[in-house]
Amino acid sequence: MNGILIIDKPDGVTSHDVVSRVRRILKTKRVGHTGTLDPFATGLMVILVGQATRLAQFLDKDEKEYEAVIRFGFETDTGDRTGDPKPAPFAPESEIIERVRGAEWKAILVSFLGESEQTPPMYSAKKIDGKKLYEHARRGETVERKPLRINISDIELLKTSKNEIRIRVVCSAGTYIRTLAEDIGRAAGIDAHLSELRRTRAGKFRISQALRLEQLSELEDPRSALFPMEVAVSRLPQFVIPGDRIDKTRSGLSTRIDQTTFANGEQIRMQDESGNLIAIGVYDASKNSIRPKVVLI
Fold first, then answer.
1. pLDDT-based confidence at residue 144 (cuts at 50, 70, 90)
2. Angle at alpha carbon of residue 184, lines to 181 and 190, rounded to 5°
3. Residue 38 falls in the annotated catalytic set
């Protein structure tokens, strides 16, 4: 059983819980995913099944889209609603509401567009020296973290409501929306934290394509919900393998080609004449050949 499954993760469960549930429903152990969502977050998870797990490297860097609710009044030690409020003077709620109402949100949000550096929060799954940051944080430790380059390609205000705003964000993989929420609050001069988060897109996959776990379990044949593996790498240029080279490709042998528009080192989608994905290869201009890098079938 090989393919890609798009799941709408519910609130209150971990990404690992989702993978475990899919394993039970599909009755297969080889299941993975391409991007963790915090337990309080909801929305799109790209689940890889069978040999599709080998394609994670081609999906985990995809652009992401979120809808987020930012609540103003105080920051938390985790940057989101699950944490404890940081020690700080609390402004009256009426003052917070007035400041939210009067903020120039369009100008503030536009200032976050483009590339910038973002420091990973201590309460995150990023590993430093083999240990996840949140493991350090739970022990009261603070670890030095290097800022990472991120890109926000689109951001817009969807709604304001008393002490909250709802925004839509399109960003590069690895962007921490809880950190963005804090930074937006600081830019507005109002302490803030992330109250809600919903992922609505990952690469080409959209939330409208997702199934809830209950829906998946109710299908007569849950395998019918799988997208073919080819979808994961459809953006890569294609090479149709001659019939007499398919077994050799599966054995990891390179195939010479007559003509090409491929760039040296470019990743190539290697398929048979029926469109089945056999391997992901790399073009070697010096030998005018494609060498299989990830063999799937």
1. confident
2. 100
3. yes
